[in-house]
């Protein structure tokens, strides 16, 4: 059998095999996504921006992907997990703060007075977060957060909060990184709290976590150095604060953004207004059985204006109930 | 000749060759550094933290290197280049601001009144920077900065400012990146100004540029989106502001830091106080012939306390005059 003529055929077969294996790989890497419109849109987008020489090719340095955290990468019901942490911290730290017994909203937390706590509103929550998240160094705070994350359990699932992350989104993060994307969190959560678990749980390193930020002060006490956290809100990373922090910290417009609530609207708008190819996606909480079903009327993670905008702009809206095979890593 | 016994020898020779080529590579990549104590300290440090299985090995994700910009990566005499830009911007923007003709410190700039400008002090400079760096979108501002950088010339060298970068430091940045480091700028310069050239000149992408920050506001005018820069200082990235921004934005302690002035002292201290291996270095401006010679008495880039600290802590102090073969890329 002559060997020369066989070579072009062999090369062609090799390319075919490589091509098949590439397409297969995309499906393999998103195994918890049903073959629905959202997975198709993701795979099409990633295929387009990574195709060298293609009209939509985006150089790796510009493949910035931003994700909200609460409700987008992990659950946020019955309340933002960080608020549950702050409430636990009030109880844990109470012995060092005897005045809290008589001072709202701390009194309400210590007495389990849900009505008084609810009445204190967002101002009350912010006061609790500021008090429980400051007065210590960043290192100490992260140690506190990690201790809580290791021991606390979600009231309904009885699982650690870090297991209540969305398996399909973990796969999406990995799929994007495998395709040269840099994945960021841009979230209303406080930045150090998210850094306490983002690298281990999401594979997102601290420098790619952007969030609500407290003031801090470098302290040098006879050569003992620390960064002291102050009870002062420096940046509220919600709504318009998201494109503002993206501009200030990343300095580049993302080409992909995922959120789940009206707090993500401006980040999605900003991403979708980019000149080149772009992808704006919403996780829609439609699964009352496996997770929670809520949108326009919810107090936590309200999705109303952003849902209208998504429909009018043809953004991708992920229907959790029909598009996700699994919700959590522990689901079978 | 039996082939089996030759194999171990061949393997040994291969390892030897690889070893020699590795050491040669380190020298090749820092060709503008004389074989002095600073280059040796750099090569030793990088060798130690990259040696897998070695006691000082640092995983790539933790190889964070931070560099001041003015006086560390490029020159800063006779005045910080960004201030020269701001003064040129006052003249360029003056027709749109008729009130500046009668208002200090703008009047002093427009009339070339050096004494009145000097009398306005740091407050005057800050007023000029705030006025000339705000009121436009980030995109517009970066376009302004790039236009200036393309046309302005340094008063002494008559070269573009972006050519007055230190060749040995460009080599150091590349050498660190080739060894798995992530290189950051952490500088008193305003962040968008530095982003206008950092990627092209230093190979440092926008998301690794940290600096002094102005407030901003996301604007949506009938669907036309922009990030408007406000004349409000949000973060002064100097002195203690450097470890504060490192903590807030990177969220990880650097293992290598380079500065050149007292404004870098806390960043160097913070880096040097890390638990693992660390490297703190100062560029000492000792070369009055090829660059400028200044330290304890200089108004720009004063190096006094940090020089004392460096001596007492055994930090690396680079003697530009004796340790650098070349200063600028255009030097022969």
TrEMBL record, chains A, B:
UniProt signal peptide: 1-26
InterPro entries given in the database record: HAD-like_SerB, HAD-like_sf, HAD_sf
Example of a GO MF term: hydrolase activity
Keywords: Hydrolase, Signal
Keyword Magnesium: no
Gene3D superfamilies: HAD superfamily/HAD-like
SUPFAM superfamilies xrefs: HAD-like (SSF56784)
CDD domains: HAD_like
Entry-linked PANTHER family: PHOSPHOSERINE PHOSPHATASE
Name this protein carries in UniProt: Haloacid dehalogenase-like hydrolase
Annotated source species: Pseudomonas nicosulfuronedens
